[in-house]
UniProtKB/TrEMBL annotation:
Its main location: cytoplasm. It is found in: Cytoplasm. It holds the Pfam family Put_DNA-bind_N. Homodimer. Belongs to the transcriptional regulatory Rex family. Residues 87-188 form the CoA-binding domain. NAD(+) binds at residues 98-103. Gene3D superfamilies: NAD(P)-binding Rossmann-like Domain (3.40.50.720), Winged helix-like DNA-binding domain superfamily/Winged helix DNA-binding domain (1.10.10.10). GO terms for molecular function: DNA binding; DNA-binding transcription factor activity. GO terms for cellular component: cytoplasm. This is Redox-sensing transcriptional repressor Rex. SMART domains: CoA_binding.
Length: 228
């Protein structure tokens, strides 16, 4: 199909904001596939993703994709190309460190597999929790972290632990060769430059949400009244 890289072609560097939007386009494309839709225009896909069509076309241009004027995008092919660009066609084997409520919920989420992520290990430091079954996984002792990571061929990890132990466990993950880490710990972690670290801070997101909710409830007094 003209304008799209064939499988295996290198993709240019994609800006972080565009990467984030590619995940939204992929979700919209998966919905379209589920509805049996084979082609979609840039306007339709942009509307489904909540962006404008020029932004969508700019984001997709990083994949070499411009669609076909008057025809639009082949949904299945574009879905595949975005998946390749995001690395979702690779074998991602994920370990979750921390088998508390959040860790258990993540381990039991069935949607990861369909998106290319297999949860292969779950760890905890509490001996009352170690050995318990969570779905198809048995909780391993965090003391055995390195051994289990090697045995399960883990290449990605999720930290769902208290802040007091997060850096120590992060350091152990890095030393064990894990270079992709998602952290839910309420602290700022230090990692080497070659390690990709993503942080999910729910309290910060709630604070931002509260700000926007407050703004939405304020009466629109106009620029003059606000200045008084």
């Amino acid at each position: 199909m003209p304008g799209l890289h064939p499988v295996g072609d290198p993709v240019r560097h994609i800006p972080p904001a565009s990467v984030a939007r590619l995940t939204i386009y992929l979700r919209a494309l998966n919905t379209l596939l589920g509805e049996g839709i084979e082609r979609v225009s840039s306007e339709e896909l942009a509307d489904a993703a909540g962006v404008n069509s020029p932004m969508l076309r700019k984001d997709l241009s990083y994949l070499g994709s411009y669609g076909t004027r008057g025809v639009g995008y082949d949904v299945q092919y574009l879905n595949r190309q975005i998946s390749i660009a995001l690395g979702l066609t690779l074998d991602w084997r994920v370990a979750i460190i921390g088998a508390g409520n959040l860790g258990r919920a993540l381990a039991g989420y069935s949607g990861f597999v369909s998106r290319g992520f297999e949860i292969v290990a779950l760890f905890d430091a509490d001996q009352l929790v170690v050995g318990a079954e969570v779905g198809y996984l048995r909780v391993s002792a965090v003391d055995d972290l390195e051994t289990v990571l090697e045995r399960t061929r883990t290449n990605m990890a999720v930290l769902s632990v208290p802040g007091s132990v997060a850096q120590e466990l992060c350091d152990r993950l890095v030393a064990a060769g894990i270079s992709s880490i998602l952290s839910f710990a309420p602290v700022v972690l230090q990692v080497p430059s070659h390690v990709q670290l993503r942080k999910v801070d729910m309290s910060t997101e709630l604070q931002i949400l509260a700000y926007h909710a407050q703004r939405a409830q304020e009466p629109d007094l106009g620029p003059i009244s606000r200045a008084q």
